[in-house]
Design goal:
Length: 157
Amino acid sequence: MSSPAAVRTTDMLPIGEVAERAGFAASALRFYEKEGLISGTRSEAGQRRYPRSVLRRLAFVRAAQNVGLTLDEVRSALATLPDSRVPNRADWARLSRGWRERLDEQIAGLVALREGLTTCIGCGCLSLQRCALSNPSDVAAGSGPGARYLPTALRRR
């Protein structure tokens, strides 16, 4: 991402406008800035200003979150973007190339979840008749916490 100081003042947006346009709370922008996902500068009056290009980075953050990337994965991906120019289509294609497999896993997991909503998911509740057959005496608890029969891609978070 280009240095905010090198960007023309007219290309700098106040935090409220960025928050509104990107669909994030201003507090999220401050958090992402603290975490190094985005960067901004301060006006002479001390107000946060961001380069217009931050909107693309925030769109990437949103998409990455929807795919299930962790904050560390998002940070690592964004760290590979060029500092000297605004990221282009090829940059974004390169970053998202590995998401397809992850999305396919999540889709398969969601389909399995939809098909099994009325059956046991291994949560240990044993409140459904099916649970007594699928998870007798809560044997799933020996496999670890949470809904053990829930597809792995959906337990990642």
